[in-house]
Design goal:
The chain is of the alpha/beta class and 360 residues long. The chain is built from 13 helices and 12 strands. The strands form 3 sheets. The protein has an 8-stranded mixed β-sheet, with helices on both faces. The chain has a two-stranded antiparallel ribbon with strand order 7-8. It is globular, with a radius of gyration of 22 Å. It starts with 6 loop residues before the first helix and ends in a 6-residue tail after the last helix.
Length: 360
């Protein structure tokens, strides 16, 4: 005779669901009113260099174990706090706990003063100046460089144009190189006149245009995200993570008009990383001139920079010591969340430790 179901377990499930419904109601009200929004980017840091809107942050660390500092170069189309999202869910936190002296080059929010900025400003002026500042403050001769997303493009351009720069190792994370494999098309892939039409009053591409291009990659993502949120609205931890990540995903900044034109002609039309037609400051430059130890981190599920766009960098770089990490994470999941904490970040840290001198 089959065993009868335990009425106590059924009652426990009912009680649990009643409790969760109460928590869903509470958290729903908090989200609707903006109460309890998680604080982001709160790891203590100091601004140690400025140039226009660009700022170089140095994160405070009283337990530096590795003499060679790490300078992170962020993208120019979103805000850098995704790397320091919330306490306990922060790429920066992991790096500090591993004993690194961490700097972050953040580009700020461009305005009408930045409309004429070209890629040369970022790769030939700001990055070299920031590296000099890092070397001076940390009293070293070389730095490790890490570029995230389009920040990786900027570090590649810098490395190719300045192969003798004091860079000990070079890491890129979710970095596109084959722009023919990028899934979104937007104004960058249309025409220069389309870019002119998209410019705002300040001469830059408005953030809502940039956000719209990314959102078009997953048109039902918002709907499925809300379904998942409704199901797990009872969980404070899930709600906080949802608010932080989704807040960042929509928190884009203007794209300088001249950079947009360069990206259209050099990257979208010429696909210059792949075709070896990169031009910077009137010079023809080549990724094969980058010979420092190199690491590329690619997300198998990255819908913004898919593997087909990111993996070709391994054949273009001239480094004899180069490693590719193809991981299951998505674009954000490479640096945020449980997969990042368990796999991506420890592997990046292991690579960086091998390239760093031990502190005295």
């Amino acid at each position: 005779m089959p065993a009868l179901p335990d009425p106590r377990s059924a009652l426990d499930r009912v009680k649990q669901e009643i409790e969760r419904n109460g928590l869903r109601a509470r958290n729903g009200i908090k989200m609707a009113t903006g109460v309890g929004t998680p604080r982001v980017g709160v790891t203590p840091r100091d601004v140690v260099w400025r140039d226009g809107r660009a700022q170089l942050f140095r994160y405070r660390n009283d337990d530096i174990k590795h003499r060679t500092p790490l300078m992170i170069v962020f993208s120019i189309i979103s805000k850098s706090y995704i790397l320091d999202l919330t306490p306990g869910n922060s790429f920066i936190e992991h790096l500090l706990k591993a004993g690194f002296d961490v700097y972050l080059l953040d580009w700020g929010v461009p305005d009408e003063r930045d409309t004429r900025n070209r890629l040369e400003y970022y790769a030939d002026a700001a990055i070299p100046a920031a590296i000099r500042e890092v070397c001076a403050r940390s009293r070293v001769d070389e730095v490790n460089v890490l570029g995230y997303c389009f920040g990786g493009n900027l570090t590649l351009l810098h490395g190719a144009h300045h192969p003798d720069a004091p860079v000990r190792s070079h890491t890129v994370v979710a970095c596109p190189v084959d722009y023919s494999q990028m899934p979104f098309r937007g104004v960058l892939y249309e025409s220069e006149s389309a870019i002119d039409d998209a410019l705002g009053e300040d001469g830059n591409i408005p953030p809502d245009v940039v956000y719209g291009a990314f959102r078009s990659l997953k048109p039902v993502a918002a709907l499925t995200g809300y379904v998942d949120l409704l199901d797990r609205l009872w969980s404070d931890e899930y709600v906080a993570a949802y608010q932080a990540v989704n807040g960042w995903a929509s928190d884009h900044v203007p794209l300088p008009g001249e950079v947009a034109r360069q990206m259209h002609s050099m990257l979208a039309v010429d696909n210059a990383f792949i075709t070896d037609r990169l031009m910077l400051g009137g010079d023809r430059i080549h990724l094969s001139d980058i010979t420092t130890p190199f690491l590329s981190v690619v997300g198998e599920k990255d819908h913004i920079v898919p593997p087909a766009s990111a993996t070709p960098v391994m054949d273009l770089i001239g480094s004899s010591q180069k490693t590719e990490l193809l991981l299951k994470g998505g674009h954000i999941g490479l640096v945020v969340g449980r997969t990042a904490a368990k796999t991506t970040i420890p592997t990046i840290i292991e690579f960086l430790i091998k390239q760093s001198e031990a502190a005295d």
